[in-house]
Amino acid sequence: MRVQANLDNFRAAFNYMVRSDRTIVEHDEHIARIQQERDRQIAERDCQIAERDARIHQLLNSRSWKVTRPLRAMTHFVRSLTGQPGQDGT
């Protein structure tokens, strides 16, 4: 009888460990999926940032931006004299 009780306890403990192991594997798989999605989102954002930076670089190096620099400087100067804030709030 005692051997049977020990065997039953061993089986119960073994089954518990198997269920726990399955749960851990499922959690690990879930975490891996979340990490993959996070990595995809980071890569997408990095691409968007690179595209934005390229557009800004193109704008700042464009002929029209360079030609209108004196006008922007004069506008900033006049606004500083009159106390009117510029587009950047200054």
Task: From the structure above, extract its key features.
mainly alpha
Structure characterization notes:
The structure is a single chain. This protein is mainly α. It has one domain (2-82). It has three helices and no strands. It has helices spanning 2-60, 63-67, 69-82. It starts with a helix and ends in an 8-residue tail after the last helix. The mean pLDDT is 90.
- Kindly state the percentage of residues in helix: over 70%
Task: Report on the biggest sheet.
Answer: none
The end-to-end span amounts to 89 Å
Shape: rod-shaped
Average pLDDT figure: 90
Q: Which structural class do the helices and strands define?
A: mainly alpha
Question: What's the domain count?
Answer: 1
Strand content: under 5%
Order of helices and strands: HHH
Low-confidence stretches: none
Helices, by number, come to 3
Query: Rounded to an integer, what's the Rg over CA atoms?
Result: 33 Å
Number of strands: 0
State the gist of this model:
The chain has 90 residues and is mainly alpha-helical. Helices cover 87% and strands 0% of the residues.
